[in-house]
Amino acid sequence: MEPDLDSLSAEELEKLAAPYPVRWLYPPKPGERDRVVYLFAGAGGLEIGIRDVLGHDLDIIGIEINKDASATAIAAGLQRITADVTALSPFHIALRWTKGLIVTAPCQGWTPAGKRAGLNPVNQQVILDMFISAWEATVGVWEDLECSEELDCTDECDGCHEGWTGPIYGIGEVRAMSKQLTDERLGLIAEVVIWGLALGMQSSDFSWMAMEQSSALPELIVDGIREEFRCGDEWLDTGFQILDAVNYGLASRRKRNFWLASRYGFIDWSRLTPVREIPTTTAAKALGWPEGVRVNTRGVRKTQGGNWWSADKPAVAITSKIRGWYPEHDPEYRFTLDEAALLNGFRPGYPWAGSRSSACQQIGDVVAPPMGAVVIGALLSRPWEDQLRAYLDEIYHRTTTVTEHRSVVTPAERAHRCTTTRRHTRLSRCRPRGTRPSAARGTGSLSRGAAARPAFTSASSSPTSAPGARSIGSVTVRPSNPMNSCTRCWRGTRGETGQPASSCTPSMKENSNGGRPSTCEAETETSSSTVPGGRNPLPGRPEMKEGTMETQVDTEYGMVTVRRVEPDGVPEADRAWTASYEVTGPRIKGLVHVQPQFRRDSDGFELLPSEVEVYMASGRYSTRQAVFTVNGIELDETHLLHVGSPKDTKHFYFFRKREDFLRTELSDAGTARARAGLRAVLEAHYSDPLLVHDHATALAKARGRSRNVKTMRELEAKIAEAEELEQVIEGLRTRLGLLADLDLFAAAQRPAEPEAPVAPVVELDVIPEAGEVHISQLRAGDRVCVVGNNTLGRTVRREGVLLADPKMVNAQDWGRRVKKWRLYVDELGAEPARYNSLTLWPDAMVQRLHGSVELAQNLAQAA
Q1: Which of 1, 379, 462, 604 is the most exposed place for a label (fewest CB within 10 A)?
Q2: Using one digit for the tens of pLDDT, what is the confidence trace for 251-295?
Q3: What whole-number distance in Å separates Cα of residue 836 and Cα of residue 800?
Q4: Using an 8 Å Cβ cutoff, are 185 and 109 in contact?
Q5: pLDDT reading at 53 higher than 90
């Protein structure tokens, strides 16, 4: 019920609007700023990008639970409500004229910081269930009731009780489902669905949404969000795109997944790409440092990801750990808040609130202002490229940099205060890291003066900085040059795959020219091994060639050849249930191992494995020698779990192999090609069901008596249940027989009824022509091809027989009741029902196909 706002006092209005401003209770005036709700707003990086970079004025109210982050945003001139998002209702009366929604939920659950709990299939299923429940708690379910006497409907009423029911339970029940997750922070991503659907149901003014999330967001969750907003054609255009801030001039890497949605128009996705390439900004250039500086991120710890990054390149992704980073030459120096924020795209002097640790946490969690300008500018069709270039020139190309007042001299100042000559400074940069000038070394001075130690020792000029080199004490070890050996077979100690040559089978030794065998003697040998397991080919199996099973799989990149070979690269104990495949295709080659995998938490027994494990690449600690190369790039150690079918390959991402053991994600093109190769392997594997059964049996036996006993007991229980059901069915059949006998006896006692007149045979004098016709010209029995909306509101194409004459009905369309044609299209013999009904606009045209006359005659005879 609409409240009378004019009759309320100021205190009552504030209470009614709380926690939102009172002005949001009233409709916006002409020329007033668009109202936007920002969930998990943080310290305001995205808003700074909209306001200061893009120059667009929006009435944004951010909701943030962190008090320090809210204080920072308020000090920067932004609007904040310090509250828990999950404690607020999106159906608030003050949100009736909301124009847009921005959501930047915490992403730790998808990253190593949250132990990647979001990759757990159980958690993913709970999240998808939350999406579906959010629809039912905001939109409702489709209800299709037939008219009856109890409903007191008129003769002209047809389907007046069909449509969406509205919310069938509360939003709190949806949010409570997050308690089933191992990390409840994962459930916060459901707020984009809850708020987006609720605001859309509350107001037709609501027209756009934007969400920022980790680039590691699984594609299954991405598709789940997209489907909820596409259901019923409610949102015209939705999509995800991964963007890296370094490609937009930021001085640090920040790869994020952005989701954009438009309700009434299409999004021009090309606007996310700059017309002219934006120059890359290095960390040294942004901070005013000289060349050759390296930054330590983890102290003295030795980690797989490395402890250093070069300031001559953009900085690594800024996290809260930047509070402990320091330049290599000066372990006592720490980044100031202005320097840390500058790498993330903030102007110096941004009013960070709270302790240093809290401020660094805010800097690590914030959305970079340049990316806020790019994403919202593209979504709202506003130019952003020139504004972004001017903003980057302002913050990164100044002659001076404003920093905090500190007693410690900054590295840039120390470089200019060097008291030695320019020649001495230039020569000192050529010394290996950790050494000192001879004068300082002789005195043993530990002074921090520039004369005692060079300010910035060049990392690029040191003897240990050669590509691929590593230092062990005072000895520099450089990798051997593979070009010194045979370019085709890497004659000597290592094969082409990077593994020892002794572990490479002859079939793996291929050159780089399209996978053709080379002329080396070692490569001309052919394998005479039999099929794994010693089994002969059976009918229905792929073609056998040279003792191996070979399958040709057509992919989007061309034909891929998959050959099953002996699992020599697998430990002896696992070979009984391992299938090894050689893959050769366009820019694809490798050796892949596939093993069965039974569900650990399965409720029922499994005679065949529900999933498989895949080994595509090996690493330092691998016991299975696998390798996979795409576009000439070898994959890093890859072990894929929970693969149920070939279509599951789209859920996996791959990393390239590097000498420094860093985890670098493969490009989108390389990932797509790797997925195609993996899909080809799985299709070849599943095409041999006998092999799958043999491997499953071998694995079950290897697991011991416990699994066999469990399986037998479950199987016996299923058999007993089936026998009970058979007894129930037999009893029902007996009762049906008795009822049939009684029916025959009663029919014999009834007096004979007069014979009904025979219905005349309908003869069609005119044969309807095939082609595009208006719906009003169609009749029952016509074979048609129809494109219309089903009961869920989705546009579908259906071809079949028209089961009844078309009729005009009242249907739902975006909350309005409109007149539409209803058609029932299915195969001959079906009954008109909800699942085969379609609705079309009154002026719609339908394609009538051949064969309508015979169908109409059959219908008439059946009647």
Answers
A1: 1
A2: 999 999 999 999 988 899 999 999 999 999 999 999 999 999 999
A3: 10
A4: yes
A5: yes
For residue 458, what are the contacts with CB-CB under 8 A and spacing of at least 6?
A: 291, 292, 429, 430
Amino acid at 173: E
Distance CA 821, CA 819 (A): 7
Residues in the chain: 863
Give the model's pLDDT for residue 78: 95
pLDDT at 45: 93
pTM for the model: 0.50
Burial class (CB in 10 A: 0-12, 13-18, 19+), 523: middle
**Sole residue written with tokens 């091994």:** 529
| Sign of the torsion angle spanned by Cα atoms 222, 228, 233, 238 | negative
Q: DSSP character for 595?
A: E
Cis peptide before 19 (omega within 30 of 0): yes
Say which amino acid occupies 479.
P
Q: Which amino acid is at 384?
A: W
DSSP code string of 282-316: -HHHHHT--TT-EEESSTT---TT-SEEETTSPBP
**Element containing residue 235 per DSSP (H, E):** none
691/448 Cα distance (integer angstroms): 70
Lookup result for tokens 């006592």: 332
Task: Give the separation between CA 424 and CA 414, rounded to whole angstroms.
Answer: 15
CA distances from 199 to 21, 191, 825 (A): 17, 12, 36
**Cα–Cα–Cα angle for 841, 842, 847, rounded to 5 degrees:** 75
* Percent of the chain residues topping a pLDDT of 70: 71
Given phi > 0 = left and psi -120 to 50 = alpha, else beta, which region is 411? alpha
Q: Quick check: helix, strand or coil at residue 418?
A: coil
CA atoms within 13 A on the CB side of 160: 10
DSSP 8-state secondary structure symbol assigned to residue 665: E
Q: Are 375 and 259 in contact (CB under 8 A)?
A: no
On the CB side of 111, CA atoms within 13 Å amount to 13
Helix (H, G, I), strand (E, B) or coil at 533: coil
